Amino acid sequence: MMSFRKTGKDLQLPLGAVWLMNSISEYKGKQELYTRQSPQILKSLIEMALIESTESSNRIEGVTIEKRRLKPLILGHSKPRDRSEEEIAGYRKALDLIHRKHNNLDISPQIIQELHHLSHTGAGDAGKWKKKDNEIIRKKPDGTVEIIFKPVSADSVPEAIKQLCLAYRHSVEQLKYPELYATACLVLDFLCIHPFRDGNGRVSRLLTLLALYHHGYEVGKYISLERIIEQSKETYYEVLQKSSIRWHQAKHDIEPWLYYFLGTINSAYREFEQSGGSVKSPRGAKTGLVTQAINNQLGEFSISDIERLCLGISRDMIRVVFRQLQNEKKIICLGKGQSAKWKRIG
What we know:
The chain is mostly helical and 346 residues long. The protein has 2 domains: 2-280, Fic-like fold (Orthogonal Bundle), CATH 1.10.3290.10; 284-346, Orthogonal Bundle (Arc Repressor Mutant, subunit A). It is 58% helix and 4% strand. The protein is built from 15 helices and 4 strands. The protein has helices spanning 15-29, 31-34, 39-60, 67-74, 83-101, 109-119, 157-173, 179-193, 200-214, 225-231, 233-244, 255-278, 285-295, 303-309, 315-327, and strands at residues 136-139, 145-149, 331-333, 342-344. Strand 1 and strand 2 (145-149) form a beta hairpin. Helix 11 (233-244) packs antiparallel against helix 12 (255-278). The longest helix has 24 residues, at 255-278. It is globular. The protein starts with 14 loop residues before the first helix and ends with a strand.
């Protein structure tokens, strides 16, 4: 599609992007070292990533549920009670499909529709291309609406997605572009096509995870890429807007998106390395996981918030870590009692 129009000889990657790609490749080479942890440690990292990925990807799109319902829906067998819970459970199923069967899932129109069907469970058009043209808008502080991008028309979506998948597959098979660059192009073009009425953002993040798996980058299994994107949500939307200008004419600038995309993956690997370092010793495993969960928090949080992320770790142990970080002046308590809120310092 549009981002794949440049020929290999015309492609000149900026030095910063090359540096990020090299950094990610080095991390990829160390993956096996990071995953040589005890099964219990790896299970905790995987479960934490599942919870954070499901919650963050849906929350970016405005889908939220009660926090006490997250764990039963994502890791248990609780049945959804409403539409929002159906979408949470559906995204969890889509993640599970990719984690377990990525080797058997091609980047194809059918797989894209399947990911939408799972992640948009409960909607009448789940898994179906949009029937009407849509626009990407932004609401201004004064209440007015600004159109910032007009995606591909509804009639053109099936062919556009088909051409996107063919262009991506060709670039990979012919080694036309570096793998990470091709993946960035795939995701950007998908978002510019905007093939579904709703849920495009969620599918784009699932598509990212699947493509990275195909190229041997498995960090999304242990660290939530969706959570990292949510934490930089304003930048995410800003670079998408910049890189979509003149996309229809194939004269757009992919650089802003490329830097953001590579930076997200690099951050995930850096976090994975730090997590691996903090859990090498069985004695420090639980402390490392609790500390990591606290460091990932934005704004205020409670002990209960950390408890639901640190499965298999007792509340008493979590309190010990809280006291330790409080004594080190890394977190501060904002209230009293079991429901008291905490905040990171600095």
